[in-house]
Amino acid sequence: METTKDFYLSKEHTWVKIEGNTGIVGITAFAQKELGEIVYVDLPDVGDTFQQDEVFGSVEALKTVSDLFMPLTGMVAAVNDNLLEHPTLVNEKPLTEGWMIKIQIDNLDEISTLLNPEAYKNLINQ
């Protein structure tokens, strides 16, 4: 997945790729590098709903556990079940096969609170 004009990032290190009213959500390459090797991913169920910035799951690395924060308000439409058996996909391909959930976005206006790739790069380089 290439970063495009429909690709946004949160200050909590999640990304979302917008496709109409659907968002594909994962964690950033920066976040997975900081965490180290991901050994377990705890994801919500299809049909669960979350507000923007609410915890929707967690990732466990060898030495730490980190919460996952929802970049936009919405309902979980799909979960990447491949991560249950292959959590290292988050490390290996965080922007493609390492996606975590797909959501039906409730409020597209919330996109304005997210960062574009350049602004995110500035944030992590501070």
3D structure, described in words:
With 126 residues, the chain is of the alpha+beta class. It has a single domain (7-120), classed as RNA polymerase II/Efflux pump adaptor protein, barrel-sandwich hybrid domain (OB fold (Dihydrolipoamide Acetyltransferase, E2P)), CATH 2.40.50.100. The chain is built from four helices and nine strands; from the N terminus they run βββαβββββααβα. The chain has helices at 29-35, 82-85, 89-92, 117-124; strands at residues 7-9, 14-19, 22-27, 38-42, 49-50, 55-61, 65-69, 74-79, 101-105. It has a six-stranded antiparallel beta sheet. Strands 4-6-7 form a three-stranded antiparallel beta sheet. β6 (55-61) and β7 (65-69) form a beta hairpin. It is globular, with a radius of gyration of 13 Å.
Secondary-structure element pattern, one letter each: EEEHEEEEEHHEH
Reading off the top of the CATH hierarchy, the class is best stated as Mainly Beta
CATH superfamily: RNA polymerase II/Efflux pump adaptor protein, barrel-sandwich hybrid domain
Strand content: 35-45%
First-to-last CA distance: 26 Å
- In angstroms, what is the radius of gyration? 13 Å
Please state how the strands of the largest beta sheet are arranged side by side.
1-2-3-9-8-5
Helix content: 10-25%
Taking the sheet with the most strands, its summary is: 6 strands, antiparallel
Number of domains: 1
The CATH architecture can be given as: Beta Barrel
Number-wise, the strands total 9
Note the total helix count. 4
pLDDT < 50 runs, ≥5 residues: none
How would you classify the helix and strand content by structural class?
A: alpha+beta
CATH topology: OB fold (Dihydrolipoamide Acetyltransferase, E2P)
- The gross shape turns out to be globular
